[in-house]
Amino acid sequence: MLGEKGRFVLPPEFRKAVRDSGQGERVLCLAKHPRWKCLTGFGLGRVAQFEAELDREERIALERGTDFDREMRAAQLYGFAQVPFDDSGRFVLPERYFRLGGLSDAVYFQGGGLQFTLWNPEELAKMGAGWEDAQEACLDLAARARTGKGGK
């Protein structure tokens, strides 16, 4: 939920992964997800993998005989914002990401590993088959937040 002073809170499990990826830096990297109406979040360490990711995506496109605009994809990958967060995980979301990710006053953090996604619960609810677990987890967290029992 959007807290006081217009801040969101990065949940502890995501906070640790982001900080570890950034060698202790408390910087959340945010970008528009290339396919879904949500944001993607990651730590600074993921940036070192971008060139290999571009090479892989280009190779796959060549194998499939599909177009690949490396310059556009690089602009998408490297066009992220670096958002600092405090020890409690509080961060201010840049205004453009409310629009790009379809976010409002509630954000659901989904996933893990190299990156995760940040969803408006209403947008997540629109996703089709394969998203049921995330949708139910989001509903559970929203219910707990309404009753004051916490959540991410």
Care to describe what's here?
By secondary structure, this protein is of the alpha+beta class. The chain has one domain (4-146): 3-Layer(aba) Sandwich (Chemotaxis protein chec), CATH 3.40.1550.20. The chain is 40% helix and 20% strand. The chain is built from six helices and seven strands; from the N terminus they run βαββααββαββαα. The protein has helices at residues 12-21, 50-64, 70-78, 95-100, 121-126, 132-146, and strands at residues 7-9, 27-32, 39-42, 81-84, 90-92, 108-112, 115-119. Strands 4-2-3-7-6 form a five-stranded antiparallel β-sheet. The chain has a two-stranded antiparallel sheet with strand order 1-5. A hairpin with a 6-residue loop joins strand 2 (27-32) and strand 3. Helix 2 packs antiparallel against helix 3. The radius of gyration is 16 Å and the shape is globular. The mean pLDDT is 91.
Could you give a short description of this structure?
The chain is α+β, with helices and mostly antiparallel strands. Helix content is 40%, strand content 20%.
